[in-house]
Design a protein that fits this description.
2 strands; 89 residues
Length: 89
């Protein structure tokens, strides 16, 4: 999975539409190989991002969990610690 796509389920506070859209954009970029599509492909690219964001939002809204929601700040700190260990920075 692309490292820039973050897990969005079961967080407190809940995921925002902007976060879902950003993950959807990263997904479409990854599968197309385009960072920015050409004018000829722009409408299809944007439509795909919109569709994936909509479906992802529906999925996240329908999922249930008995686990305690994760804390965003704690998860971010863990990720930074893993990156520092991995890349030595």
């Amino acid at each position: 999975m692309c490292r820039n796509i973050k897990t969005l389920f079961n967080f407190e506070p809940p995921v925002t539409e902007d976060e879902i859209r950003a993950a959807s954009l990263q997904f479409v970029r990854k599968i197309t190989g385009f960072n920015k599509p050409s004018k000829a492909n722009e409408a299809f690219f944007d439509s795909a991002v919109d569709d994936i964001a909509r479906i992802s939002g529906q999925l996240l809204a329908s999922l249930e969990s008995t686990a305690t929601p994760k804390n965003r700040e704690e998860e971010e700190a863990k990720a930074k610690a893993r990156a520092a260990e991995r890349f030595g920075s």
